[in-house]
Amino acid sequence: FDPRPGLARQQALLAKLEQALRAERARGIAGHWSYELAHHTALFAVYRRERDAFRRDLEASAPPTDAAQKP
Asked: Are 47 and 14 in contact (CB under 8 A)?
């Protein structure tokens, strides 16, 4: 039983976004006709939001450390 199934889904989404960003970056570098800067920028903005949300959720689901438990 995984107590954090949402994190696994977020991780899978981040992997897909990273793959899409790599492909978009490669199109831009190659000068491909289908490359659009606006699409690349929007894709990167979505990636950053999802990455930040994942980090927040990961920290929130982590067990408290000894330092956090001391007064």
From this structure: yes
